[in-house]
Predict the structure.
Amino acid sequence: MELAAHSRSAHFYNIWAGKRRLTRFRRRVAKDLGSVFVLAAQGRLHAQVAARIPLSEAARALELAESRTVTGKVVIVPDIER
């Protein structure tokens, strides 16, 4: 996956469609994810996080994610033991 600076393009993967040409699909996903991991390691890729919600409130996290009222990802984090 080629990414230009400040690029807003995206690629989506249909996991089920990959079954038809599994070897080619796996090779493409590995290459693209490798690029993503390199960018993240370089600090050039940042995820927009809308909310961090404890695992014990996973239902609330799912409701929020499905509500389409937030910009960014809803991240489920481990519960903090007190």
